[in-house]
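Researcher: Go.
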Amino acid sequence: MERIKLGLEPLDALIPDGMIRGSLIGIFGETGTGKSVILNELAYRFLQRGEDVLFVLLEDLPFSRILSFDALGFDIRRYLEEGKLKFLDCFSYRLRGFDIEIEPYLEESVIEAEDPRNPESVWEEIFSRAKEIKGRGVVLIDSMTEFLTIAPDASILLDLMKTAKALLCRYYGIPIIYSFHFGFYDDFRFQIEVFSDGVIDLRFNPEVVNNALVKQIRVRRMSGSKHRTEWLTFEVESGKGIVLVK
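Model: Structure:
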């Protein structure tokens, strides 16, 4: 049962011994609390350790996501060139018929989902790619909420997530980390929280500090791992990512 550190300062403080590698983890929070930023940094930290990353994009174009990495001060282009980072593009299908071409340097790093509205086809692609990164990679999904807006049957998506936990997490030893927006699809959220191994919450501090919204993070649950459950305050620094505010 290998344990791994996530590499983000607040999460390493909250999970001091690391998490079990084959875990399914959800990051939950309101819009603007930093879910996508955390997924970006997670991708970068796994890449720095020499691991592979399959990043499933449902809310953004690959090119736009690269710009968000740049804004954090994380240059991921060499990982794209080396094939260590792959984007599963479940967003660009909206542009079909508009004569828009993919950026040439991304052609080898982007897998375009045939029809993201069919969750089975998306997960078949994920399962296929996961075979290449068994025990040495991570699957990131941004976001599960967006998946629900285009999937015609939420029960099918839920069942596929359970299959992914069994196959990818438990059998292949690949962690899956997904984001989920509060305030949407609460019935589904309650169900996915139950069978997830880890639940990470983000929020704005209820007490506004210096007329500003302050972001906080906690680990509500992390099965099989020692963890702290208090809220920690964090901010984002270019080149450093998510850092604790003492």
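Model: DSSP finds eight helices and twelve strands in the chain.
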